[in-house]
Amino acid sequence: MSQVLCIGLDAADLDLIERLVGEGRLPHLARILGHGARARVTQAWAYRAELPWTAFVTAAPSGGDGYWGTMRFDPATYATTEQGAHAAEPFYAGGDLDVIAFDVPHSTLSSTVTGIQVTAWGAHSPQYPRAAMPRGALAELDAALGPHPAFDADSQPGWWSDPYLCSLTAAMLEGARRRAEGMVRLMRSRPGWQLAITVFSEPHSAGHHLWHGIDPEHPLHRHPGAPAAAARLEAIYQGLDEAIGTLVDEAGPQATVAVFAVHGSQSNQGDLLGLNLVPELLHRLEFGWARQRNPRHDPIETGGWAEPQGAQQAFDLIGRGLVGHRHPDPHQAPDVVDRATDVARRAAKVAGGLLGPLRDRGGEVTPWYRIEAVAPAEAAHDGDGAIDVGEGRAIDYLGTSLYQRYWPYQRSFALPTFSDLHLRVNLEGREAHGIVPLDGYGVELDRLEDVLRQCRDPRNGLPVFADIVRPRADDPLGTDGPPADLVALGARAVDALEHPVVGRVGPLPFLRTGEHSPRGFLAVLDPASATTVPAEVEVSELGPLLRALAERGDARAASVPNVASATVVPEPV
Q1: Mind listing the pLDDT tens digit for each residue in 452-505?
Q2: Cα–Cα distances in Å, from 415 out to 20, 358, 420?
């Protein structure tokens, strides 16, 4: 067998990498990309934030085994909870393969893997506890390195805050360095390894908050902080290159090196649409009153944007425009008591914003813009990989939660999502308080599509959505389909929308400026530069391809046959 070092770059953008390579700033990636075999890594259009790592780890197409992401919706209660990583065998399990798997997103421990497994040392949204097999391996890394300095602390929207972005950049650079050092320790502890894989989460975390500095089409590319955002993201990519060089040197000249990304980065077209703007639009269309007020002074009219000030958070700015409503029936609009309560609540928020910096200086609280790792100790298990991950946490931290108590009264509503807009029909015979009859399911989907296609970006009059799919159209009552009945892909980054019936919704402050694109890549460099790979690899086929590289007998002359890609998600309509 061969030794294959697999280096994942989570949500790394190939265009940015190639530009920095051309500028001579990524020498290690330049050698791998310039002399290795190359392939495009593709994935299903929908669910591109929820499913690619699961598809990679389990080698199952998107939606395989009925798993559609980390969110579970209960039609009996309308509750949404986290369900964590898919408990399926990883592609590197079984057989004689000697494996080191360090911090692979959405991976779970498996007793059928020979070697070392460490989960959730520092992966962005690992969806599994911090654990290891053999037990104690993660605790040893923590003792030697400490956890990733941004573990569970890299998701706060803060593109406007220089202190936050400074803290984030420092954490990403140090995290990449520690990850490389940790992987080196593991490789030295098991010199007979055949497949060693780790995934750098830093381009994922940094891309969420810094992408407006890279993409000239993002509205915030005109923001005064955009050049600094670009410089910081480029510096993080340079730090990744240095860490890659450390790992390649440690593996030695006899090892094959595979660098890959299962998806890329692009301007965020989904956060505000899926979490705030469309939920508010559906609410106004259904009940005739606004849950989220538009700002008193519209920054779009002056060519600006809604921007938190000082130590303020985006959620505070959104929360100040939220209309209180104490009535059990949402068809009854807020009254004078609700409005009076709103005044008191907004005054309290303003006072809290003024006192926040004083508390910060007094040392009573850690400001949100200072990134500090919150990493629990290694989880215990009984030796077979099974870990009690506990009950699913309620998803009450996303904008959709502001509307959740109204869902039983709506024809359709927006589900929590980490990428595109996901809509669910409140269907009779499926939801506990279903409104739409089964024979009206298609009519309701038609209505939703019409609503979305009428939405325009008030900054330029262009459509807000690019494509729409109906992943459950053939079987709305089936138990294996995704939670969403309709998935819509945004056309561009927007902070407001205009609809002919309800008028303007927003603008709201941008949250994360970057999200995931379906563009991934693979580059393989063997000692003799003789490996060939298919021109295109579906993400669920990538793991078996890497395993085949490790299981081959001669590293100097090998090729990996292509296999047909598969997906159960329909194409956009």
Answers
A1: 999 999 999 999 999 999 999 889 999 888 899 999 999 999 999 999 999 999
A2: 38, 38, 10
Among 262, 213, 319, residue whose Cα is nearest residue 49: 262
On whether the pTM is more than 0.90, the answer is yes
Q: Please, are residues 269 and 18 in contact by the beta-carbon 8 Å criterion? A: no
What span, in angstroms and rounded, lies between the C-alpha atoms of 51 and 106? 9
Pick the closest to residue 208 from 506, 517, 459, 487 (CA basis): 517
Rounded Cα distance, 527 and 252, in Å: 10
How far is CA 520 from each of CA 17, 53, 102, 302, rounded to the nearest angstrom? 12, 12, 20, 38
- End-to-end CA distance of the chain: give it in Å, rounded: 46
Per DSSP bridges, beta strands 256-261 and 520-525 are antiparallel
Alpha helices in 62-199 (DSSP H): 137-145, 162-189
Percent of residues in the chain assigned helix, strand, coil, to nearest 5:
35, 15, 50
DSSP letter (8 states) at residue 313: -
Could you count the other beta carbons within 10 Å of the beta carbon of residue 58?
A: 24
CA atoms within 13 A on the CB side of 557: 0
Q: What is the pLDDT of residues 425-438, one digit of tens each?
A: 999 999 999 999 99
